[in-house]
Design brief:
Blueprint: H1 2-5, E1 21-29, E2 38-47, E3 52-59, H2 69-72, H3 76-79, H4 85-96, E4 100-103, H5 106-119, E5 128-131, H6 132-138, H7 148-154, H8 165-186, E6 192-194, H9 216-225, E7 255-259, H10 266-275, E8 279-281, E9 290-293, H11 301-309, E10 313-314, H12 316-322
Helix pairs in contact: 6-8, 7-8
Length: 347
């Protein structure tokens, strides 16, 4: 049993190649695009064995509309007097220094952090990251999906305030400790990836504005008037280049369908794919380039059709990696609409 294995990593058996410390991070943001901003951040510092040393939390004024208030609960009024990211960059950096950044969907958190540091003309003092989605896969944990709540439930960790950076970081820290011990006990190589900083940034974001409270009525008005595009998207301007080929990049114009639960809000994930130049398909046909699902064995109509048509199927984490660098459509200028913020994990 996994629970028994987590206790087996004694002082003598602990892998010497494992990191000496971790910074478990969660950031809440105004959205998913490259121009979106961090509005709150939390860090739990852990020692080499995953034991909590301390924690830290701050609000951040994003200098623009706060985005999906109905998800994170932070309004313009609450953020108006918060420090700018440049004001907390040094303190945030001290929490990350000489540690491995740990996050659930770490490529997402790191992308946001790297952009904020670039805007502030600084560099985050962290060189490696670890995604807990990728680690859960290495450990073959029997999770129903890649959501943080599922990882928490597996280890008996109680979530008190989902989508609050401090509580999400706490939950992740508590779930990471037994995961780390299981990895050490089994001699599992940690899925560490390099944190590559950005060196420049052009930011044209607007100043922060007023925001409604998040009631159903205000949500409708907000969705229609603010950061998120209309649900009726314009047609994809690029021709369909055909099916996705494993090992190759996505190409603008590819028809992408989604099935089942996603760790990132489905509409936000679709928006990000659309911004990258992909065609969002509501069903699977012979023309579908790719199906994204975290449960390929679910037997849904989409997965069944994809299997019968020979349509490639990948999970949300792999899709997030591919969104980092979408190839331009044939005849389009290179980089004209490349994705800049992946929504899914390093896994």
């Amino acid at each position: 049993m996994l629970e028994d294995r987590t206790l087996a990593a004694s002082a003598d058996s602990w892998p010497t190649a494992y990191p000496s410390g971790y910074a478990v991070v969660d950031v809440e943001t105004t959205g998913l695009s490259k121009d979106d901003r961090i509005i709150s951040a939390a860090v739990y510092r852990l020692d080499a064995r995953g034991e909590v040393e301390d924690h830290w939390y701050t609000l951040v004024n994003p200098q623009r509309d706060p985005g999906p208030v109905w998800i994170h609960g932070l309004t313009s009024d609450q953020l108006a007097d918060a420090p700018l990211f440049a004001d907390i960059a040094e303190e945030f950096g001290e929490r990350l220094r000489d540690r491995v950044l740990v996050a659930h969907n770490a490529v997402f958190d790191w992308s946001m952090i790297a952009r904020e540091y670039a805007r502030a003309e600084r560099t985050a003092p962290v060189r490696q990251r670890l995604c807990t989605i990728a680690l859960s896969k290495e450990l073959r944990l029997p999770l129903p999906n890649h959501k943080l709540e599922s990882l928490a439930a597996h280890f008996g960790v109680v979530q008190r305030h989902a989508h609050h950076a401090l509580d999400d970081a706490r939950v992740l820290a508590e779930a990471f400790r037994p995961s780390l011990r299981a990895a050490a006990s089994g001699g599992v190589r940690l899925p560490l990836l390099e944190c590559r900083p950005l060196t420049e940034w052009a930011d044209g974001a607007a100043r922060i504005g007023r925001q409604a409270t998040g009631s159903p009525a205000s949500e409708s008005a907000y969705r229609a008037q603010s950061w998120r595009a209309s649900r009726k998207r314009p047609a994809c301007p690029y021709p369909n280049p055909g099916r996705y080929e494993p090992g190759q990049p996505l190409k603008q114009g590819m028809r992408v369908a989604f099935s089942g639960d996603t760790s990132v809000d489905r509409e936000l994930l679709e928006d990000r794919a659309f911004e990258a130049g992909l065609h969002i398909a509501t069903s699977v046909s012979r023309l579908t380039s790719l199906l994204v699902t975290n449960d390929p064995d679910s037997g849904t109509s989409k997965t069944t059709k994809a299997r019968s048509f020979g349509t490639p199927v990948i999970d949300e984490a792999a899709f997030g990696q591919l969104l980092q660098d979408v190839a331009p459509a044939d005849g389009a200028a290179a980089g004209g609409a490349r994705a800049a913020r992946p929504p899914a994990s390093d896994g």
